[in-house]
Amino acid sequence: MVKHDRILLASPHMSGKEQEYIKEAFSTNWIAPLGPNVDAFEKDLAAYVGSAGAVALSSGTAAIHLSLLLLNVQADDIVFCSSLTFAASANPILYQKATPVFIDSEPASWNMSPIALERAMKEYSAKGKKPKAVIVVNLYGQSADYDPIEQICAEYEVPIIEDAAESLGATYKGKMSGTIGKFGVYSFNGNKIITTSGGGMLVSDDIQSLSKARFLASQARDKALHYQHSQIGYNYRLSNVLAGIGRAQLEVLNERIVQKRKIFNRYSQMLSSKYSCDFLPECDYGNSTKWLTVMLLDPLQELSLSTKLIEYLDEHNIESRPAWKPMHLQPVFSDYDYFAHDEDVSSDIFHKGICLPSDTKMSQEVQDIVIERIKNFLDMH
Ligand SMILES: *Cc1c(COP(=O)(O)O)cnc(C)c1O
User: Fold this and answer.
1) Percent of the chain having pLDDT more than 70?
2) Strands 200-204 and 53-57
3) DSSP bridge pairs for 53
4) CA of 288 to the centre of ligand 1 (A)
5) Is the CB–ligand 1 distance for residue 287 below 6 Å?
6) Does the CB atom of residue 60 touch ligand 1 within 6 A?
């Protein structure tokens, strides 16, 4: 096979227009945080997803933390959170010294299981306890199934924080992912579908809460001539230079979604017909961005097969990764409660799932190199 550079999972994909917005920031000396690019990026993103407002932040993690602050999550409060996710979904619960309770996935979407959620609500309310919030994560570009989740949360009167860091541009029953919960969170980290090198966004229809988020994210400075503070603040705002990157990236988001979906379709067409492997199913309630293509290896095979495939691809200069390791299996969260769907769905996905190179800069020829390597490996096993 031909020699090639390392084939990456997902890397920043600039459109070329980013530099125009950055140049604008330089020529007007808006290098300081905030400024016209931040305002425009917030406005454009809110318009794209259809939320009443948006606050540009230094990271998606900061947006999750601020959501918890806005819902007044404090020490010893309980917050439910999807278990199958990246640690950044759950870490802010601990920043607040609150207690996370982890909820399993359902097999159809790999996102939060309404069955496990309902059981958790019942058991906790029987103990006279109620979570302050539920963080629902939309994994790998696909929305969770919100109708049953919202119904349960409405019954117990618990607000939803939607961690849409991986699902910007996806839809659920005609709504944009991230706009269903009380708060929605996006990330523009380097590996996400669009990036500002680092950054995040908090969206909501509650304009008052969003202005409070702006206040908290800018060191909680009171309106006074001198520096006065009546609350603890944070330095969480996005820089005007980086927001310029975001403006140009948002203009190509729809194009990136088409590219990501094409990558997914090629993998699944070329591999699932001949081999006993599966792909994260697409639910019929909405459109997935296919941020990452995730393949599941045959459950009847030995458990370590996915590890072996990752090592094999690595030897051939191809990056792949296991699916997220669930939070309830993480040493740092091992003391907290966990509610499984029935069988432990998220652990199963972790053991069998492999994220394949889904870089939108990857040509079809290069993707075919990856597919050939996977075929070679599967023929040998
Ligand atoms: C990337 C990611 C985050 C964190 O976003 P940052 O911008 O890197 O802080 C949170 N949750 C999920 C599910 C993510 O994939």
Assistant:
1) 98
2) antiparallel
3) 204
4) 17
5) no
6) yes
Structure tokens at 315: 């030897």
Task: Report pLDDT for 1.
Answer: 60
User: Does the 18-251 domain belong in CATH 3.40.640.10?
Assistant: yes
Task: Identify the residue whose tokens are 């530099």.
Answer: 19
85 lines ligand 1 (CB under 6 A): yes
Q: What are the sequence ranges of the domains in the chain?
A: 18-251, 253-380
SS3 call for 335? coil
Single-letter amino acid, residue 120: A
Rounded CA separation 190/14 (Å): 11
246-280 tens-digit pLDDT: 999 999 999 999 999 999 999 999 998 888 788 99
Query: What average pLDDT does the structure give for the chain?
Result: 95
Top-level class of domain 253-380: alpha beta
Direct distance between the N- and C-terminal alpha carbons of the chain, in angstroms, rounded to an integer: 20
The pLDDT value recorded for residue 321 is 96
Half-sphere exposure of 139 (CA within 13 A, CB side): 32
The position carrying tokens 């980290």 is 189
Q: Model's pTM, two decimal places?
A: 0.97
Q: How far apart are CA 5 and CA 3, in angstroms?
A: 7
CB 165 less than 6 A from any atom of ligand 1: yes
CA distances from 255 to 74, 289, 368 (A): 41, 10, 21
Check pocket membership of 357 for ligand 1, CB cut-off 6 A.
no
